[in-house]
Design a protein that fits this description.
29% of the residues lie in helices and 26% in strands. With 266 residues, the protein is of the alpha/beta class. It starts with a strand and ends in a 20-residue tail after the last helix. The relative contact order is 0.16.
Length: 266
């Protein structure tokens, strides 16, 4: 944990009491003592410091001083629903790597039963998103959208998602691209990345995304697992786009952009 992130409802009169894994980390990893100031943040809120006013076996109490805003997410991720155990691993990673909106969609090579997974419940995945934010030292919680019908998603959501964005679809048959292949970074357009199932996109699915302006993108000839591909793509593109967002050169995500329905758990 590089920043202790708390939920707004945990704060009372400028203080927060912790007795979970965050308290364990403060006591056993950071070795914090009374009077010490720790980096803190509020989920979807400000950054600041928390002064330790109590630290014992029962928990940790922090007095908060909140000032600056956390960095904005820099991209959106469209992900064909992975296997539940893979999805569990991905929650923290997408939050840590700066995803603003995560769209979990159906595809031909996705098992329908995946949409009944326990890991799609907000109570299960939100702590993992917070874990990723604490690792990255930021506070913006990704908005999660779940769409079990690809055609419905393509008809009612995809046009709004792609509007004004620079859109990529991961495909191993695309020519490998280096930094010189993305001059649109300077254009200030927000990136949207689509990653398919481990069995790959069907040809008609690729054509569907391409009809909305998505361009094929490859990291090379090797076929990667879903979680590996997501992390590699987000890390590679993040090095190009995330700094532009921080400088105000990439249009920030608008969570109120026209979409079909409210995000899950938000």
């Amino acid at each position: 944990m590089n920043r202790i992130v708390v939920e707004p409802e945990e704060i009372h009169n400028g203080r927060v009491e912790l007795s979970d894994n965050r308290a364990d980390h403060i006591r056993n990893v950071l070795g914090a003592t009374v009077g010490q100031a720790l980096k803190v943040g509020v989920a979807d809120g400000k950054l600041g410091l928390g002064e330790v006013v109590r630290c014992d076996a029962s928990g940790v109490e922090l007095a908060l001083t909140l000032e600056g805003e956390g960095p904005e997410p820099w991209c959106d991720l469209i992900l064909a629903m992975p296997r539940p155990r893979v999805l569990k691993r991905l929650w923290a990673q997408v939050a840590a790597l700066g995803v603003g909106r995560l769209f979990l969609i159906h595809a031909a090579r996705v098992e329908a039963c995946y949409f009944g997974s326990h890991w799609l419940r907000p109570a299960a995945y939100r702590p993992l998103l917070i874990e990723g934010l604490m690792q990255a030292g930021t506070t913006r919680v990704p908005h999660v959208f779940i769409e079990p019908k690809l055609k419905r998603f393509a008809d009612l959501r995809l046009p709004a998602i792609a509007a004004g964005a620079v859109c990529f679809i991961a495909h191993p048959d695309a020519a490998p691209t280096d930094e010189t292949g993305w001059p649109m970074v300077a254009e200030g357009r927000r990136p949207v990345i689509a990653v398919g199932p481990e069995g790959g996109w069907m040809d008609d699915e690729v054509a569907l995304f391409e009809s909305h302006g998505f361009r094929r993108l490859s990291l090379g000839r090797r076929i990667l697992r879903t979680d590996t591909a997501c992390v590699a793509l987000l890390a590679t593109l993040g090095r190009l786009f995330d700094g532009q967002t921080a400088k105000g050169c990439v249009t920030p995500m608008s969570p109120t952009a026209p979409l079909l329905r409210k995000p899950a758990g938000v």
